[in-house]
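Fold in tokens:
===
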Amino acid sequence: WGAGTYPRGEGWAFSGGAPWTPSNRRDSRRRAVVVSSAALTVRDQLAADTRTLRKSLEDDLRRDYGLLAIQGGPGALAAFLRWCWPIIEPGVDLEWGPHLDLLCATWQRWIEGEIQYLLVMQPPGTMKSVTASVVLPAFDWLHRPHERALYTSGNGKVSARDSRRCRDIIRDPSYIALAALAAELRGDPPWGLKKDQQEKLDYVTTQQGQRFALPLNGYITGQRGGKLVVDDPTDAGAVVVGSPDQIKTRLEEDWNRFSKVLPTRLNDQRTNPIAVVAQGLHPLDLPQRWIQMLGDELHVLCLPMEYDPDHPQCCPDDWRTQPGELLEPVRFPQSVVDRLKRSLGPEQAAAQLQHRPISATGGLIRREHFQGRYNGRPRRELGPVLVMTCDLTFKGTASADYVACGIVAIDGVKRRPLDVRLERADFKGTLEIMRDLYRQWRPDVTLVEDKANGPAALSVLEEEIPGLIGFNPGRSSKYERAQVLAMAMAAGQWEFPEDYLAPWLAPARGQCLAFPDGSHDDAVDMWSQLEIWAREHLATREPFFG
């Protein structure tokens, strides 16, 4: 409008100079409609061009992912997961996170033979089953279409679902083309699924590869394979429904099936790999028993929903550094995690989200017992009496208990740990640990339990380490000895350094928090021995203890 005003009568003019009339107004509206239609057409064209460009870029990117997958090398499985996502979940965006890079890298090491025994522990909904039971078999056949593998689950419906989704990938035309290209690069003939063997639970390639799926308690006689994957062997409901004896019986059945039946189905038990995908639901469940049985032979990828540096299976490759840092902050922000924790309750939240079959706050010894702090770095001046306390074992095998030796400064009723060694060692290695700690700290007293393995160490080191004492803590059980330690910690008698000054603290604290249900309790024995000795020999008992 001319002069930036609206017309109110004759004499007002358009910017073109014509006087305003009802007829001019109608013409203006017509022109506005034409302009608006033209603008709408331009916007639609721009949107269409944007969609076309995005589709072209996505196609190019997917083609690159496919090439990376068939070429192999680091990141190949991660690339394949991205490539086949539109087949698995069409129309759903894949929200990638660091946990998927670590998960895929670990599974790729397993399938390529670097890892023989693998335990993957992740919370529900973080793609652990999709990766292990859907994507992994299809990726394996890209490179080794002759491989035979057994996939089992505690839930038969889940086993059938994942087998069908994997078959959907393999029968997709884009996968067939990708597999043909991979075969051509290797100089092999193309392959596919046998037409007469494409069942939902059992399908075979023209190269005699096989993916066989079955429930954990299903019929397995006659089936064999070169790989075994067990996905969620125990349902979460199995550890909360029924009496303790009923729950224990179910867990025992799962363990016996896994340890006594399934391994016999492998072609070569010396080298064939086994993997378990699970959550830590109960102190007697399959993952916990497998950890205890294999020890360091077992590669554990444990990724709790919230980072826990004190976790007994804390993963050294976990990228997180701050306690409580979330695994998937986009899909599972803090508000969602908090809602899950309220819904599940503390025990099930600790199990399903954190893979701790006990509360993350601890059992007999609790997290708040470690809140006492002393100032500065660990140093000799923190107490007039310095004690080395040792819990010894001479078995250096992967599944053995740890040698636990610690240095503690005692100042009245205060106990201030300065150093801890938790290592698996044979007799010679155990003596070296004790010698090394003595040379570094020059303790006034060295405590060794005067039974089992203790007397052997005492006889060898009595000339080398002054103040070496064989001590019997008494009490009827480890639990009763640990109660003395827990009461002293609860009373504030134990003070600890800041974590960043003491990397040795987290493993020892993790054993304490897991007691009495954890796989190892060596740190508990080491410190409870010192607490009992100090109360009996240094008269440092507080009135609270009578």
Summary: Residues 373 and 496 are 5 Å apart (CA to CA). The longest strand covers residues 414-423. The first helix runs from residue 22 to 71. Residues 1-17, 540-546 have pLDDT under 50 and may be disordered.
